[in-house]
Design a protein that fits this description.
Chain lengths: 414, 316, 250
């Protein structure tokens, strides 16, 4: 692909990108290519094999977002989200499930370092660093929905069903969370719950830190998904789950002002999606330059060349928007929310088209499981839904662009 | 013009690479002398003396030269270099080890791995793993060259042998000592000079399969066994059987690649073979793009069948 | 113990480099560059010696254009302590490289110098041997194993037909072959830490070394490509054709 990165990336960013790329080329891609059937055969506990996670650990990509004082990495904060995007893209180029496993840790680490009490950071960050299997999860979505519930109107009726009620020096949580990335495997969860049923979701939602072994928390299910299968998506039930009062992260406004810490997640999502697109392109470019049809390699057939050019153009357009949006998030620009939702929704639809081209240019081989193109196609499809559907993301763009008529100042027409 | 060729030998016998280096030296033009350095290497010197195109053979026979460590052999060549316009060696591991040391001591920029000689100071050599050939002109008064033996024909046997003359051995610089060597013993021909090579890739999937599947075919053909880097890295065969950019670069009359996909690094090591046969079950393996005869088949079926056919032919 | 490692920035080995149409050189426009793979192995070996307490300082040196600093930064991220860039835009031949490295070695006084056995661009396989000769040191080329003692080292070398082990008194020079070790990836935290490690900059003139080439490149061309032959339908057909058509089987 095009790599005009001089002047855009710092030397360190390029070195980090190159390290991740080597890891993916040497370790991840060969595993995925030669173990395509294991995606379906493995039990949740075996996804992924230890050697791959150890490799990821060795290059230090599980614990981005952990502050240096706790043994984490000293990423430059002013370009941190851009760096996240670069790394996420490279890992997803190898496997988007592996990338998702890892990036949940980054975005939850940001929330913890921002809102958790010092003594809790001192307790949990070292555990995260010590244990290569330690994963974090971010629990928003419920069986009755997530942001799609409050998007039309921020009214009490649209609040979360999971509730947290104070009880002495504890909070008691009851409810259910579903479609949670890393939900089946995580050791520590950030959970969002309603703490004030009398107001809208933006004013009445709080966030809590919940260790996996807390009594009352049950991991009920590992979801079998169509793509991104090496990440174990899970379902959680809270039944009188008592957590100490100091585990409250953000009171009431966890989805409002504190919601800006979700932005990095949107960028990472778009970047992972971009990585899937790059994998589609590279594999297809390789294929059409080696396979012969009608006495010529495929790329010399104009219809093939045009499709390939279209793939490359879409990928570069997505990359440009991801770059611009991540810069906006890093600089806390007022348009950051709009741009990161645009990047996410645009990436998901464009890369889906890229994956479709890949499938098409592979002919019959594109449909064969062992060729791995159908995996990329399924992995691309997941992004249309993960971390908000494309339509919800579009609504968020409009609500942010037009707060008076469609956004935070808007109410029912009387 | 007088040229000194450093012989590659095993004391009691002369390697084929020497005969090829002698013919390369002949292309530069001038008188060719051969230096045989070692310990108890009279036999190798006599073999060199019987090759066509050799004007003199210099024998440096002494204990300091046993195992041909770079430091004493380089000192020896430097002590003789005054009388020569060019010093040349085959680019075997020994030649590659010794010759740059000589060049530095003579303040000459060596030309490595020469594959063609276009004139007394004009040489072709591969760069970028053989993807590109560079033609260079040396401005040094004295030339130091290593030549790729497989690119040159072997000098034939002369009608009459020239005399072997002993030369003085300078003091050993003493910066190195021989500890031990672990040479893989094999009844098969040396990979570097074999007329036929049967080579296996990762698809062989075990050391045992190299022995039970490839070896019978190799032995019936009188061939050497080679391997891809993947097979060596997987531990199926020893390192010195690796064919490729970072292993041996060979050009046998017949190269039979079994279960080798044909990574560019591998092709760099065998693409100059006269006839290439590829047996691979993937019809799109890149090896087929360089093979004269390709057979899309499972090697575990095709190779034993191949063996049976040639064994039958040998009996008939 | 101090170790000096020389590294070169080269075209990525996975890129197929092409000759320019006019034969004046190779086309390196917009090609990804990386550390010479054999030099990565050399850096890794030095870092391992430091990790087991055998070495206490690793200096990496590279001779080349400004961008070679990035290659040094990679070595620092792998675990080297400081870098030295001998900056020049000229093409520097192995003999001149060896002369510069000799001057660097005389200033740094390392106990061991490790380099890759060859750079994968010019494929010369000369620098280590030349440097060792100029310094009057012993050389352990094409190393697949290195055992470091207090006053001497043992180097197991990959040679035709097997392995040869030599003993060298210190100081000594080693060139790394493919199987000496498997280099690590620079980890992300170490890449950020390497940013704070120093890289000095000099020029070849600072060492009094002239870099004018001794070899003139007359022409660069691509070898004739081998054409794909035919696919045979059976082992029988293969054997028949090898006998009758190619004449390589009896």
């Amino acid at each position: 692909m095009i790599h005009a990165d001089d002047g855009i990336l710092s030397q360190e960013q390029r070195l980090m990108r190159d390290s991740c790329r080597s890891f993916v080329d040497d370790v991840v891609t060969p595993f995925i290519r030669s173990n395509w059937q294991r995606e379906w055969d493995m039990s949740p506990g075996e996804r992924l094999p230890g050697a791959i996670l150890e490799g990821a650990e060795a290059i230090g990509i599980r614990t981005l977002g952990v502050p240096e004082e706790f043994g984490g990495i000293d990423l430059e904060r002013e370009t941190e989200v851009r760096t996240f995007a670069l790394i996420a893209e490279e890992i997803a180029r190898g496997d988007s499930g592996l990338a998702d496993k890892l990036v949940q840790n980054w975005k939850v680490s940001i929330v913890i370092r921002q809102f958790a009490a010092k003594h809790l950071q001192e307790k949990w960050f070292p555990r995260l660093l010590e244990d290569p299997k330690f994963l974090l999860a971010h629990c928003l979505t419920e069986p009755r929905g997530a942001s799609d519930r409050w998007l039309p109107y921020n009214v009490p009726e649209a609040s979360m069903h999971t509730r947290a009620v104070p009880d002495g020096d504890h909070w008691v949580i009851n409810g259910r969370k579903q479609f949670i990335s890393n939900g089946f495997d995580a050791s520590l969860y950030v959970v969002y719950a309603n703490t004030d049923p009398s107001v809208g979701m933006l004013q009445g939602t709080s966030s809590f830190l919940v260790p996996r072994e807390t009594p009352g928390l049950t991991i009920t299910k590992c979801n079998e998904t169509m793509g991104c299968r090496f990440m174990n998506n899970g379902e959680l039930v809270f039944e009188d789950c008592r957590i100490p009062a100091d585990h409250l992260l953000v009171k009431s406004t966890a989805l409002a002002s504190a919601g800006q810490y979700f932005r990095a997640g949107k960028i990472i999502q778009a970047a992972k999606n971009l990585g899937v697109g790059v994998a589609c392109f590279e594999r297809t470019a390789d294929y059409v330059q080696n396979y012969v049809q009608g006495g010529r390699i495929l790329i010399k057939h104009q219809a093939v060349a045009l499709r390939l050019a279209d793939m490359a153009t879409r990928i570069e357009a997505v990359r440009s928007l991801v770059e611009r949006a991540s810069k906006a998030v890093d600089e806390a620009h007022p348009d950051a929310d709009i741009l990161c939702n645009m990047a996410k929704v645009y990436a998901s639809e464009e890369i889906m088209k890229v994956a479709t081209h890949a499938l098409e240019l592979h002919g019959g081989n594109g449909a064969m499981l062992e060729f791995g193109i159908e995996k990329l196609f399924r992995d691309a499809a997941i992004f249309l839904h993960m971390d908000a559907t494309v339509d919800v993301s579009r609504m968020k763009i409009i609500k942010n662009m037009f707060p008076a008529t469609a956004g935070k100042y808007a109410g029912p027409e009387t | 013009m007088t040229i000194l060729v450093l012989a590659e030998h095993q004391d009691t016998q002369l390697d084929d690479a020497t005969a090829k280096a002698i013919s390369a030296a002949g292309r530069i033009g001038g008188e060719v002398h051969v230096l045989v350095a070692g310990s108890g290497c009279q036999a190798a010197a006599e073999a060199a003396a019987g090759l066509a195109g050799v004007a003199r053979v210099l024998l440096a026979d002494g204990p300091s030269l046993s195992n041909r460590l770079a430091e004493p052999v380089a000192a020896l060549i430097v002590s003789l270099a005054g009388g020569y316009d060019a010093v040349l060696a085959p680019s075997t591991t020994s030649g590659r080890n010794i010759l740059p040391r000589v060049a530095a001591l003579l303040d000459v920029m060596q030309i490595s791995d020469v594959v063609a000689i276009d004139g007394p100071d004009l040489f072709q050599r591969p760069i970028y793993a053989g993807n590109v050939i560079q033609t260079v002109r040396s401005t040094d008064a004295k030339k130091v060259l290593s030549v790729r033996a497989s690119s040159f024909p072997a000098a034939s046997v002369a009608a009459a042998a020239v005399p072997v003359e002993a030369v003085a051995i300078p003091e050993n610089p003493g910066r190195s000592s021989f500890v031990r060597s672990e040479l893989s013993r094999s009844e098969r021909p040396e990979l570097a000079g074999a007329r036929i090579v049967v080579s296996g890739g990762r698809a062989l999937s075990s050391a045992e399969n190299f022995e039970t599947v490839l070896a019978p075919l190799a032995d019936t053909l009188g061939a050497a066994i080679g391997a891809s880097r993947a097979a060596v890295d997987a531990g199926y065969v020893s390192n010195d059987l690796q064919v490729g950019q970072t292993g041996k670069i060979i050009a046998p009359d017949l190269y039979i690649a079994c279960g080798i996909s044909g990574a560019i690094q591998h092709l760099a090591g065998m693409k100059d073979s006269r006839v290439i046969v590829a047996i691979n079950k993937d019809p799109d393996a890149p090896i087929f793009q360089v093979a004269d005869y390709g057979l899309v088949a499972d090697l575990f079926e095709a190779v034993p069948e191949f063996h049976a056919a040639v064994a039958e032919g040998a009996k008939a | 113990m101090k170790i000096l490692v020389a590294v070169k920035r080269v075209a990525d080995p996975n890129v197929k480099v092409r000759a320019l149409a006019d034969g004046s050189g190779v086309d390196l426009a917009n090609i990804k560059m990386t550390m010479n793979p054999f030099d990565e192995i050399a850096v890794e070996e030095a870092v391992r010696l430091k990790e087991v307490g055998r070495a206490n300082e690793i200096v990496v040196v590279s001779i080349g254009p400004e961008k070679s600093a990035e290659t040094l930064r990679t070595a620092l991220a792998m675990g080297a302590d400081r870098g030295l860039l001998v900056r020049t835009d000229a093409v520097v031949e192995p003999l001149a490289v060896a002369k510069i490295l000799k001057a660097v070695a005389e200033a740094e006084r390392p106990d061991i110098i490790i380099t890759g056995k060859q750079a994968i661009d010019d494929d010369a396989n000369q620098t280590g041997q030349m440097l060792s000769a100029l310094l009057g040191w012993g050389q352990g080329t094409f190393a697949s194993k290195l055992v470091v003692g207090d006053k001497a080292i043992e180097v197991t070398r990959e040679v035709d037909g097997g392995l040869q082990t030599v003993g060298l008194p210190l100081p000594a020079l080693v060139t790394a072959d493919l199987r000496l070790n498997e280099p690590r990836y620079a980890s992300l935290p170490n890449i950020m830490k390497a940013k704070k490690k120093p890289i000095d900059e000099r020029t070849p003139a600072d060492y009094g070394v002239a870099v004018e080439p001794r070899l003139t490149v007359v022409r660069v061309h691509e070898p004739a490509t081998r054409k794909a032959g035919i696919k045979v339908g059976s082992v029988g057909e293969l054997v028949e054709r090898l006998r009758m058509e190619a004449g390589v089987l009896r």
